[in-house]
């Protein structure tokens, strides 16, 4: 009895595993065609300067409009893209599309807005990365200072020597470099000093409990103090409430990003936001 029970379980397990693998393979097949079929698109989330209350940048966030499943978020397909190497053509498409968009906004005679693009570890390690970034900037005409590349701690810490070389090359182009999801990986403070990137983005997991969570508050304050000590700009991600914004302003945080300031949205809506002088009435203090 026990044996058949176990057998049944094994069978159940293996069939659900088969289904998992099949849906994974199906997704991969779909992802291979997604670019050509123009199923990928970008949304843009505003980044607001705390002292001026103006939009100073946007972050490009990729979405997949799947023909059967509807909209698939990057947390689901970016890991698959990394596993399969599809991140290379997808990442290049994201970078070019974002640069073209930034130029289009500029041509509509609006003030320059920095465009932030996420780079995956695989892209960062690619020996053609620098050339790819140079061509994207050259072909679209975007000022390198208006392109921000977001890297994670994991990407940077993997091979410090190679990282240093790539960062030097990217800095030479003049692009703006930042560390994304800061506090969730394991950065060595020593490397942080040597890497010399412009901005730190505090991960949203530290912001989400504010202002009640006193430990997250302590961590957030410490990151801001450290970053400023290293002459870096600090961005808080995942700002969802006015209370969080007030607190972050008190802490001296430079920039904020999150649902309270605006969700990731279409380029048309970003244009509307950019046309307004100020997005939100920030507290006076
Ligand atoms: P990320 O770079 O840290 O981007 C911020 C994520 O937080 C986005 O999720 C955004 O929609 C979400 N978010 C923004 N404001 C709030 C908020 O107030 N509360 C909460 N809870 N979440 C907020 P999204 O768009 O699903 O992207 C998830 C991750 O996927 C990104 O995290 C990034 O690591 C990756 N990703 C997105 N687009 C690309 C891309 O083009 N290339 C690569 N390599 N990775 C990408
Ligand atoms: Mg990011
Ligand atoms: Mg992040
Ligand atoms: Mg990230």
From TrEMBL:
Q: Which domain of life is it from?
A: Bacteria
Sequence ranges assigned to domain EAL in this UniProt record: 24-278
Segments traversing the membrane: none
Q: Which residues form the signal peptide?
A: none
The protein here is known as: GGDEF domain-containing protein
Annotated organism of origin: Massilia glaciei
Give the taxonomic lineage as stored in the record: Bacteria, Pseudomonadati, Pseudomonadota, Betaproteobacteria, Burkholderiales
Please give the range of the full-length protein represented by this chain.
Answer: 417 to 701 of 701
